[in-house]
Structures are given as structure tokens and as C-alpha cells.
């Protein structure tokens, strides 16, 4: 008879979801852009509106639609992508910076 007693090991993995909402100051974003946000947004909106009216679409497609069409300046579409990438990167950096304080202090 064996003197070894088997032990059952159970591992529990807990996943945590975190949603963070915040506001990125306009001036912080605009200092990284080639043009002011208002100008960019107004020019893009006008070109999209003109395209929709000229082509009798009856709706406003997603921006990805216009990347495949002529009629909207690719520079403006690229600038919108750049704004999104910069905003995501800045937000990610800020979340990491602030959360480090939480993990270090605990």
C-alpha cells in the first residue's frame, strides 16, 4: 500500500473587464495634427455631403466606403485616421500612466 496521497489542484482564472471613459483635451490632440480639427471636420463633411447628394444615395455611408470612391479627398480621410490613431495612443499612454499609480500603491 502506498503512503502517497494524491492532491487535487484546482486553478481558478478570473478575468476582469475594464471600461474607461475620459476626455482628451482638444489642445493636447491638436498639437499633434497637421490641421485644426474644425477645419478637417468641416472639409470632410462637405465633401461627403456633396458626394451623397450628387450620387442620390439617401444615406451617409461609413468612412470606409469613401476610401474606395473618388469624390472625397484621400488626404482628409488619412487625416481622420491619423486623428484616431493619435487619440488612441494618447489615451492608452494616459491610462497606463495613471494605472501604474494604482498597482504600485497596492
Describe this structure in words.
The protein is mainly α. It is 57% helix and 0% strand. It is built from 4 helices and no strands. The chain has helices spanning 26-30, 37-54, 63-67, 74-105. The chain is elongated, with a radius of gyration of 25 Å.
Order of helices and strands: HHHH
Gross morphology is elongated
Share of helical residues:
55-70%
Distance between the termini: 49 Å
Tell me the β content. under 5%
| Whole-number mean pLDDT | 83
Rg computed from alpha carbons, rounded to a whole number of angstroms:
25 Å
User: What is the count of helical runs?
Assistant: 4
Strands, count: 0
Model regions low in confidence, pLDDT < 50 over at least 5 residues: none
The major β-sheet equals: none
What structural class do helix, strand and pairing data support? mainly alpha
SSE arrangement:
Blueprint: H1 26-30, H2 37-54, H3 63-67, H4 74-105
Helix pairs in contact: 2-4
Pick out its properties.
106 residues; 4 helices; 0% strand
Structure summary:
With 106 residues, the chain is mainly alpha-helical. The protein has helices at 26-30, 37-54, 63-67, 74-105. The protein is 57% helix and 0% strand.
